[in-house]
Specification:
Radius of gyration: 21 Å
Low-confidence stretches: 396-402
Structural class: alpha+beta
Helix content: 25-40%
Mean pLDDT: 93
Strand content: 15-25%
Number of helices: 12
Distance between the termini: 63 Å
Length: 455
């Protein structure tokens, strides 16, 4: 055992109590040695203690699995990343037919497809055609920019990627994911099947504490529709499996038993920038993974928020380290995960992220940024508050389960902004200015056009 634990039981417990997170599982793999802390219960109503085997919904972290399934098919010579999606799905229809004609498979996996993000997850049933029916709805999404010419977080693109997997394999997405990724890696506690999940210890999601009495409440329904599994609906996993998944990212493309899933070259390609466009300031995009640097050291990450649960996977290849945090609360679980990841990076790897310097602006200087911004599934109302702005937002299930949120922000140089309080503290965004006028905001990775100027 190490002289100093990577994570501290009392710190995790204190943060969970402070933030109203009923249950959390934290794991760190440093040089192949695992250290684990679990705290709390699976549900405030009738929960059991959280342990390493408890299944949590991992939300958008599932996108890394969808991307890997595609890459396995690339490895097998059955998919080419630079081929148009219509080569595999001739029936694809988008609102912009020229986009449907040129859109490539890789552009599905790096958030450069260009249409509205598909954050309103319509229930398309529980049949094996659920994904096909969800893809048909893409024809209604407005195209914001031509594929490959910008970046905006895109759930719908991963739904379409999942459908490509179905067409190429002739199986349902769930069957193909198990055969291509989960089974070879021995991830027996990772599944999108409600019937399988409900027969194992699983966590229930929770909404934020009520302002009146400070208590959290169970989030219902438990999961989102089946048609959105490739983007982050209902895929559940244990801490043990997520640590195995993270350790695979640190390896050479082989499973623990030596089974070759990907060549080392293709695995590393998933962790490298695929576009010059950033999803957020300082956040690059690999194949299914998000990339950032601290002190010149690259971090490979993904987060997921769905149905009142949050997951974080952070991998630091240069230091042979991975950090996993699973919680059954959102968005407060995100804040807890950020604290734990930041603390572990600082104390064990010596990686300290410095905060940018905010601008001191007057109300008149801030006024041009205020207004209403809207895209499918997201509406933001931005108002001036003191020396900064407050973003009042209702976000999709992928970020916080239908809950209205406030993001106090300070302006930074270069039209950027910094969230300075709440569960998204430290996250940066930016405003888009054209011809001297603010026309959009890039918030939680989404490009959200401005629609209504303040009165």
């Amino acid at each position: 055992m190490r002289d100093q634990p990577v994570v501290f039981d009392d710190e995790v417990a204190q943060a969970a109590r402070e933030l109203g997170v009923p249950g959390v599982a934290v794991g760190v793999d440093l040089g192949g040695e695992r250290e684990i802390v679990t705290y709390g219960v699976t549900s405030v109503d009738h929960g059991r203690p959280v342990d390493e085997a408890t299944l949590f919904q991992i939300g958008s972290t599932a996108k890394t699995f969808t991307a890997t399934a595609i890459m396995v098919l690339v490895e097998q010579g059955r998919i080419e990343l630079d081929r148009p999606v219509r080569h595999y799905l001739p029936e694809l229809r988008l609102q912009d037919d020229s986009a449907a004609e040129t859109l490539t498979v890789e552009q599905l996996l790096n958030h450069t497809a260009g249409w509205d993000g598909g954050d309103a997850w319509t229930d398309t049933g529980e049949g094996d055609d659920a994904l096909e029916r969800a893809v048909a709805l893409l024809a209604d999404l407005p195209q914001q920019f031509a594929p490959g010419t910008g970046a905006s977080y895109n759930n719908a693109a991963f739904v379409l990627a999942g459908r490509v997997v179905e067409k190429v394999t002739g199986q349902t997405y769930e069957q193909a994911l198990a055969r291509l990724v989960l089974d070879p890696l021995g991830l027996g506690q990772t599944s999108p099947s409600l019937n399988e999940i409900m027969t194992q210890p699983f966590a229930i999601g929770h909404r934020p504490p009520d302002s009146a009495d400070g208590t959290v409440s169970v989030c219902r329904p438990w999961s989102d529709p089946r048609g959105y599994v490739p983007a982050g609906a209902r895929l559940a996993s244990s801490l043990g499996d997520q640590l195995t998944w993270a350790r695979f990212q640190l390896g050479d493309g082989r499973a623990r038993d030596g089974t070759r899933l990907l060549s080392e070259h293709r695995l590393r390609a998933m962790h490298a920038p695929t576009t010059s466009h950033e999803l957020l300031p300082g956040v690059g995009i690999g194949i299914g993974w998000l990339l950032r640097e601290i002190d010149g050291v690259r971090l490979i990450e993904h987060h997921g928020d769905v149905s009142g649960q949050h997951s974080t996977v952070t991998v630091v290849p240069e230091r042979d380290c991975a950090i996993v945090v699973l919680t059954n609360a959102s968005p407060t679980g995100r804040e807890l995960a950020e604290r734990i990841v930041r603390r572990t990076l600082e104390t064990r790897l010596g990686l300290v992220e410095s905060a940018p310097e905010p601008l001191l602006l007057s109300a008149d200087e801030l006024a041009p940024y205020s207004g209403t911004y809207r895209t499918e599934g997201i509406e933001l109302r931005i108002v001036v508050a003191g020396s900064g702005l407050v973003i009042h937002g209702t976000l999709s299930d992928d970020d916080a389960p239908g809950e209205p949120l406030e993001f106090p922000v300070s302006l930074l140089a270069g039209e950027r902004f910094l969230v300075v309080d709440g569960p998204f503290t430290g996250m940066q965004g930016e405003f888009v200015r054209e011809d001297g006028v603010i026309v959009a905001a890039r918030h939680v990775g989404r490009l959200v056009p401005r629609t209504i100027d303040p009165a």
